[in-house]
Amino acid sequence: MFDIASFFVFPLMLIFARLGTCIMVYPGFTDVAVSTRIRLLLAVFCSLAMFPLLEPTIPLLPESTSMVLQYLFIEMAIGVMMGISARLFVSAMHVAGELVSFSAGLQASTLFDPSLGGNSTAPSLFLMLLSTVLIFVTNLHHVMLLAVMESYNMFPTGDMPLLGDAAQAVTQVVSDLFLIGLQLAAPVVAVGFLVYAGLGVFNRLIPQLQVFFVAMPLTIVVGLLMLSVVLGGMVAVYTQELQDRAVLFTQE
User: Fold this and answer.
1) CA-to-CA distance for 79 and 95, rounded, in angstroms?
2) What is the pLDDT of residue 249?
3) Per-residue pLDDT averaged across 27-39, rounded?
4) What are the φ and ψ backbone dihedral angles of 110, each rounded to 5 degrees?
5) What pLDDT sits at residue 227?
6) Are 192 and 221 in contact (CB under 8 A)?
7) What pLDDT does 61 receive?
8) Is residue 208 pLDDT above 80, yes or no?
9) For residue 33, what is the enclosing H or E element?
10) What are phi and psi of 16, to 5 degrees?
11) What's the pLDDT tens digit per position in 133-159?
C-alpha cells in the first residue's frame, strides 16, 4: 500500500530542509528587499523540481520522532554551511569596497546596505550590489542548485559532516575572501598610498600648503578615477574566481 508520508512527505521535507536553509542565507536572496514569502515559495518550488532526482537517495521514514528530528537538524546544518560558505566568499567585494573607501577618503560616505541590513560605505555598497548582479548574470545561482544536488554524494542524508572538516572549510573561505578582496582593491590602495606619500613630501617642501584641505578632494577624485579605470578588470577577476569556486564546490 502506498504510504504518502513515507514516500512523498518525508523525502520532500528533508530536501526542503537542506535546500530551503541554503536559499535563506544564500547571497542575493537574503536582502531585506526580498520578501521571506518569496524565498519560501522559491525553496518549495525548487524542492518539488528536485524531488524526482533526489528521492532515491532519501532513507525511509524512521519509526521514532527523535530520528526524524535528527535528520531535519543534520539537513538544515548542511544547508546553512553551504549557504554561509557562498555568502562569505561573496563578501570579498565588501572587503574590497572597504579598502577602496579607506584609500579614497570615503569612509564617511555611508549608505544603507540591503545585503547586510546596516550601513556601508558607498564603494562597498556599489561593489556588493555589483557582485549580486554578477551572480545572476553569470547563472551562478544555477550552480548553487547543482551544488545542493551534488552535496548528496558528499553528505548523504542523515550523515553529519565532520565538524573539523567543516570548520577548516569555513576558515579557508574566510582566508580566501580577505585575500581576493585585497587583490581586487590593490590598484586603488597603491595609488592612494602614492597620493598620500606625495602630499607628505609637498607638506615638507611647502609648509604653507594646507595639506588637509587639498588632500580630501584630491584623494576622492583620484580614488574614484582609479576605481573607474580598474573596475572592468575587477569584475573579470572576481567573476572568474566565483566560477572557479562554484565549479570546485560541486566537484568536492
Assistant:
1) 25
2) 59
3) 74
4) -95, 140
5) 85
6) no
7) 78
8) no
9) none
10) -65, -35
11) 887 787 777 777 787 888 788 777 877
Strand partners, 119: 112
Encoded amino acid at 74, one letter: I
Residue 139 Ramachandran class (φ > 0 left, ψ -120 to 50 alpha, else beta) = left
Residue with cell 584623494: 219
C-alpha–C-alpha distance, residues 166 and 11, integer Å: 25
Q: Which of 125, 95, 122, 127 is nearest to 109 (CA)?
A: 122
What phi and psi values does residue 118 have, to the nearest 5 degrees? -145, -160
Question: What pLDDT is stored for residue 1 in this prediction?
Answer: 43
The Cα 197–Cα 183 span in angstroms is 21
Provide the pairing of β-strand 110-113 with 118-121.
Answer: antiparallel
Total structural domains within the chain: 1
Which CA distances in Å does 153 have to 84, 146, 149, 219?
Answer: 20, 12, 8, 51
Cell readout for 4 is: 504518502
Contact at 8 Å (CB) between 190 and 99? no
**203 φ, ψ (degrees, to nearest 5):** -65, -35
Q: What is the CA radius of gyration of the chain?
A: 23
Q: What is the pLDDT of residue 86?
A: 78
pLDDT exceeds 70 at position 230: yes
Cell of 13: 521535507
**Residue-number span of the structural domain to which 198 is assigned:** 4-251
Closest CA to 7 of 63, 61, 73, 54: 61
For 121, the 3-state DSSP assignment is strand
pTM equals 0.75
Grid-cell match 504510504, residue found: 3
